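Subject: design request, 409 residues
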């Protein structure tokens, strides 16, 4: 299998190429098992930045160079469509940062629960959010712990590096909170947020209680290898087993400053299951992509999968329509965020508000093809001006100013 190289800074092989080449066969071979949402996502990614979605032709005012720019699909699962959304979102978050340390806490579902989550995504992923947030806020409010009302944001990821189903929530939380009466800011310890063991146990208990309640209300579906769990005794035994194991909750060291918080968020918030930059090659038999083996000191390795298996793993991570994978909580919850942030800042008046230094870039580079200003000419640096609108389907209309024909050979 030939390996792919880079061309003009862009991946030679993209997810869209794999779906274009093997997607139809995958849908045919899995008839009845590929839902409407998955089909729509595949179609959007294949059409992204092609004539199918229309676009425009740009010409340089100075040298006359011309190029075609096709429209994006804007699907949140597409690896080429996250840059502009991410940049705007990060700009909003920058205005919300406080001059305090920030911590990164990760809550992970064990495999026996993750299997149930896959067949009940909207229900169980919502439980994951609620249980993680409640565990943190309840423990932080305990006077023997922090004794404060905290706030933060939580981001759902459902994948591991090998594209396996691995649902977990990343939380970014300021190191402190409002006192229970709202009269002062309570600062946490410099390198410590909350004790991980009691946090893990509380998270496990809260989640299992919610899962049991959903089962009692007939709110869960069980299929395939899990079909036997429809029996209350089997389901009870399943929960009893996961009660006996430790659930993974990981608290990382605090960020070094506001710029690091934004850089982190830029990497995690609008990420999809696999970036085009990780895909190395694709042919009729195999798809090769890079992955980090965390069990081998984060060594970067190459994994080769059959195209159908690669597509299956990618589709494991499609989210239900309307499901919010980024959520704010506590004093950063949407309903009262501006009011609570103003209160926090008034209580932190003796601290310098966060600013981004010139040598600290708050975000990573935009996704390929993303632009936030009129693009410069790649030939002379002049201004590229739109002269032709291209409708969907690749038809060639008259230009905005005069007749125009574009040679795409």
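Subject: RE: design request

Done. Sequence follows.
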């Amino acid at each position: 299998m030939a390996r792919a190289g880079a061309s003009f800074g862009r991946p030679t092989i993209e997810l869209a190429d794999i779906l274009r080449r093997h997607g139809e066969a995958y849908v045919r071979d899995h008839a009845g098992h590929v839902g409407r949402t998955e089909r729509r996502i595949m179609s959007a990614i294949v059409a992204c930045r092609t004539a199918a979605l229309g676009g425009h032709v740009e010409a340089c005012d100075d040298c006359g160079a011309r190029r075609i720019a096709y429209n994006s699909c804007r699907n949140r699962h597409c690896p080429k469509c996250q840059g502009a959304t991410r940049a705007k979102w990060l700009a909003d978050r920058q205005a919300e940062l406080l001059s305090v340390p920030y911590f990164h806490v990760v809550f992970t579902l064990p495999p026996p629960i993750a299997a149930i989550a896959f067949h009940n995504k909207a229900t169980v992923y919502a439980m994951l959010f609620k249980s993680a947030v409640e565990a943190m806020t309840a423990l932080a409010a305990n006077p023997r712990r922090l004794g404060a009302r905290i706030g933060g944001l939580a981001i759902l990821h459902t994948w591991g590096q090998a594209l396996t189903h691995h649902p977990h929530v990343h939380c970014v939380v300021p190191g402190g909170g409002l006192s229970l009466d709202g009269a002062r800011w309570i600062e946490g310890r410099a390198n410590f947020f909350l004790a991980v063991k009691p946090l893990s146990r509380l998270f496990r208990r809260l989640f299992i209680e919610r899962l049991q309640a959903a089962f009692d209300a007939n709110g869960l579906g069980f299929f395939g290898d899990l079909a036997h769990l429809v029996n209350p005794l089997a389901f009870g035994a399943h929960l009893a087993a996961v009660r006996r194991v430790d659930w993974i909750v990981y608290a990382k060291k605090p960020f070094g400053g506001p710029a690091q918080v934004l850089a982190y968020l830029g990497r995690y918030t609008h990420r999809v299951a696999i970036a085009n930059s990780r895909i190395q090659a694709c042919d009729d038999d195999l798809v090769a992509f890079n992955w980090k083996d965390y069990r081998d000191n984060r060594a970067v390795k190459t994994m080769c999968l059959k195209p159908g298996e690669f597509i299956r793993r990618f589709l494991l991570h499609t989210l239900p329509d309307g499901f919010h994978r980024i959520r704010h909580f506590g004093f950063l919850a949407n309903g009262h965020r501006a009011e609570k942030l103003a209160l926090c800042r008034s209580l932190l008046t003796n601290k310098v508000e966060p600013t981004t230094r010139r040598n600290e870039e708050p975000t990573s580079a935009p996704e390929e093809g993303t632009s936030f200003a009129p693009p410069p000419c790649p030939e002379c640096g002049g201004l590229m001006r739109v002269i032709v609108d291209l409708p969907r389907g690749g038809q060639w209309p008259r230009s905005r100013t005069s007749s125009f024909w574009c040679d795409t050979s």
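The first helix runs from residue 15 to 29.
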